Amino acid sequence: MPLALHHRAVVADAHNDLLMAVAARPPMRWGSFFRERWLPQLREGGIDIQVLPVFIDDQYRPEGALRQTLRMIECAHVLAEANADQVVLCRDGADIDAALAEGRIALVLALESAPGIDASVELFATLFRLGVRIASIAHWGRTPLADGSREDATGSRLTVPGVEALGEMERLGILFDISHLGASGVEHVLELATRPLIATHSCARALRDHHRNLTDEQIRGVAATGGVVCVNFVPDFLTDEQAKVSTDRIVDHIEHIVSVAGTDHVGLGADFVREVMHDVTPPCCESLDDEDPMFDFPGLEGPAGMPLVTEALVRRGLPEADILKILGGNVRRLMATHMG
Question: Which of 147, 164, 307, 318 is 20 to 30 A from 299 in CA distance terms?
Fold first, then answer.
């Protein structure tokens, strides 16, 4: 029954860095590598909507950030065109609905911290033309737009360009992503936002006191905008005890967010870090066999394991209608009404 429900649902993953892995290959391999390495996993996991973040490694910052941003966006277009029978790069809700009706996976481009833009807010319009529909403005540290959550001690809000970026994204139809944004920055965004927000990969701070997670007040704030908080699967954000790492712990966070914000404001943002790291780490230089336990999630290392989350939701006794919303219905609704 859980597996049948999973494949009947629209399953949306709001954060998978697989584009990093594909773009690390030579351009002539982008389409085939995606088809060989990632497409089977997405299909096995029943993924219907996949957000593709454009994350720029430190080695490209600051000088090469925009070039690498454009290269990764081109990679997304190339892999979509090379696998047009299976996936489509979507710009709005109509594109997503068409893709789902055709049995293709809907891909949505996102910027993670937007280092290629920095304070040149006008470039959001350029990247919108290239297909970007979700964006955040900070990662772990400081950017010209805002501070990331690891800088919470600064108590800083959005900079002047950061405020301009929020307004420009709302004008264009780019969903503003608060994941990774510092606490004071989230508060500032909640004061200013006039359109729904998304947290593409964040957990509940009430269950795991980590700066990457959202407080109940922040969760309620996102819900008040009509937005969605998508639960992250990275073990370190779920619990500080390795023995508690399980799909049941994911459901703990889901149920907590439901209790705070309601069933209409929860989704999934897996952030399959270990799987991506395996694809981008040269075997000659480093082994992941002794990887930090924050990445160790047996059975849920990649998208193929996504049905395990549905099993856990069913096991917990959540109503089928609620499970359908959590698996992807809420994210699909948000994208259909406020993206593009």
Answer: 318
> Rounded CA gap, 36 and 172, in Å?
35
The DSSP annotation for 215-255 comes to PHHHHHHHHHTT-EEEEP--HHHH-S-GGG-SHHHHHHHHH
For residue 211, the one-letter residue type is H
Judge contact between 111 and 143, C-beta under 8 A.
no
Q: Tell me the C-alpha distance between 328 and 43, whole Å.
A: 15
> Which residue do the tokens 């490209």 mark?
60
HEC readout, 72-127: HHHHHHHHHHHCCCCEEECCCHHHHHHHHHCCCEEEEEEECCCCCCCCCCCHHHHH
Helix (H, G, I), strand (E, B) or coil at 302: coil
Convert the pLDDT of each residue in 179-191 to its tens digit. 999 999 999 999 9
| pTM, entire model | 0.95
Query: What is the tens place of the pLDDT at every residue in 90-119?
Result: 999 999 999 999 999 999 999 999 998 999
Average pLDDT over residues 4-31: 96
d(CA 27, CA 202) in angstroms, rounded, equals 32
Residues 6+ apart with CB under 8 A from 9: 46, 48, 310, 323, 324, 327, 328, 329
* Beta bridge partners of residue 111, listed in sequence order: 54, 135
What lies within 8 Å, CB to CB, of 87 at 6+ separation is 39, 79, 80, 99, 104, 105, 106, 107
